Amino acid sequence: MRKFERRAVLAGGAALGAGALLPGRAFANGGPMGAWTPLADMPFPVQEIYPAPFRKAADPGPSLKPNPLDLLVNAGGLTPAGAFNVTDKVTFYDPAYDAWGFATSLPAPRHHLGLVNNNGFLYGVGGFARDRNGGWQMQAGNWRLTDLKGEWTPMAALPHPQAESVTQSLQGFVHVAGGRSPAGSRNSEWADHIDTDEHWYYDPRDNRWRALAPMLTARNSAAGAVVNGVLYVIGGRTVAGGNTTAVEVYDPLSDRWEKARPMPKAQGGLAAAALNGKIYAFGGEYFDPRPGGVFAESWEYDPDKDQWRAVAAMPRRRHGLGAVKLGEAIYVLGGAAKPSGEETSAALDKFEI
Questions:
Q1: What backbone torsions phi and psi does residue 278 show, to the nearest 5 degrees?
Q2: Which residues are paired to 143 by β-bridges?
Q3: Which residues partner with 92 through β-bridges?
Q4: What is the phi/psi pair of residue 339, to 5°?
Q5: Least confident of 6-20, 27-41, 185-199, 265-279
Q6: List of long-range contacts for 206-213, beta carbons under 8 Å, 24+ apart
Q7: Are strands 128-131 and 322-326 parallel, antiparallel or unpaired?
Q8: ω before 289 within 30° of 0 (cis)?
Q9: How many CB atoms lie within 10 A of CB 179?
Q10: What is d(CA 193, CA 49) in angstroms, rounded to the nearest whole number?
Q11: Given this model, what pLDDT does residue 22 score?
């Protein structure tokens, strides 16, 4: 591996203030920096989300033409208002019109629901329920949605509850890696859970989950992305050690994890997406030193070189946010501007490089 050299950004979004538009600029060495564009706000503020790409219409059947993923969808999350501050609402954004709409609601409210597009279907895995009995009741459920106007169908649940995981589609399977699991019989609050390294995959052909090689580092609130047929798990945090810079890569052909170059900063509660063969990671939060804070930093990872570099910072710093690649851009949405859920955001910004 080459020695990483952190590069300074000429201008960043945090310095320009909320809602600012960052024009495309360059690093001193001539490399691209990226540009941010503010778009239509979400229908309501929401955080602790894992949005996914989807399509405008139901699959018409076998075709030589792929059905494009031209919408982004968010399901559930924590909101500033409503019963127990958790929602069952499903919203979608159409970049062609810079407009939001509502799809069929979840069967039950969830936050931290792992939403993923796999083989043209949306799956909502795990997450937490919240009611008068506790705010972090970890779930093992797995719902599938075929069409935005259709109904969510229960599918095989995880072998046991697991949430705040990385949930990604890889080679036609749904992968759930790391996160948190109940420490014992109690499962109502965040303190009832422990970090896990468990790694499962869901096979839609027989509606079953199976175990795979565990991650090298048990952690939660990490981000994930798939590039060149392998899965990357980026950053996150542990209960004992706080935020981590760890980056690990999983090869499904050998069922093996390896370490990759760590992130430049330890960021938990961040989001990531792949674009043109590279991974972009955004935001996150930290709790130490107190009172903590929220990151505006954005990073680019080049898997071929195993190198990180800074790109244009987010114009609106957030954690518990989502990032979805559509076309030649990444759409970054929701989250909160302060640690632990204060100042929940409805912001949507487009990142281009």
A1: -125, 160
A2: 124, 154
A3: 73, 101
A4: -60, 150
A5: 6-20
A6: 207/155, 207/156, 208/156, 209/156, 209/157, 209/158, 209/159, 211/159, 212/175, 212/250, 212/255, 213/250, 213/255, 213/256, 213/257
A7: unpaired
A8: yes
A9: 28
A10: 19
A11: 36
pLDDT classification of 57: cutoffs 50, 70, 90: confident
Give me the residue label for tokens 């960021």. 267
Please confirm whether the linkage preceding 159 is cis (ω < 30° from 0): no
Q: What is the pLDDT of residue 82?
A: 76
Query: Rounded mean pLDDT of the chain?
Result: 90
> Per-residue pLDDT averaged across 114-128, rounded?
97
Res 27: pLDDT: 42
In the DSSP assignment, the letter for residue 353 is: -
Q: What digits encode the pLDDT tens for the residues 280-309? A: 999 999 998 888 999 999 999 999 999 999
Is the domain covering 13-57+67-352 a CATH 3.40.1190.10 domain? no
Half-sphere exposure of 253 (CA within 13 A, CB side): 3
Give the pLDDT band (50/70/90) at residue 28.
very low
Number of other residues whose CB lies within 10 A of the CB of residue 271:
31
**8 Å CB contact between 199 and 168:** no
Shortest CA distance to 143 belongs to which of 159, 130, 132, 127? 127
pLDDT at 160 over 80: yes
What does the domain layout of the chain look like in residue ranges?
Answer: 13-57+67-352
Query: Distance between CA atoms of 27 and 31, rounded to whole angstroms?
Result: 5
Contacts of 326 (CB under 8 A, 6+ apart): 53, 69, 70, 71, 72, 95
What backbone torsions phi and psi does residue 84 show, to the nearest 5 degrees? 60, 15
Contact indicator for 252, 231 with CB cutoff of 8 Å: yes
CA atoms within 13 A on the CB side of 72: 29
Q: Would you place residue 349 in the very low, low, confident or very high pLDDT band (cuts 50, 70, 90)? A: very high
Sort strands 52-54 and 32-38 into parallel, antiparallel or unpaired.
unpaired
**Residue 236 CA from chain centroid, whole number:** 11
Three-state DSSP state, 18:
coil
Query: Is 237:195 a contact under the CB 8 Å cutoff?
Result: no
Is residue 273 predicted with pLDDT exceeding 90? yes
The backbone torsions φ and ψ at residue 119, rounded to the nearest 5 degrees and listed phi first, read 55, 35
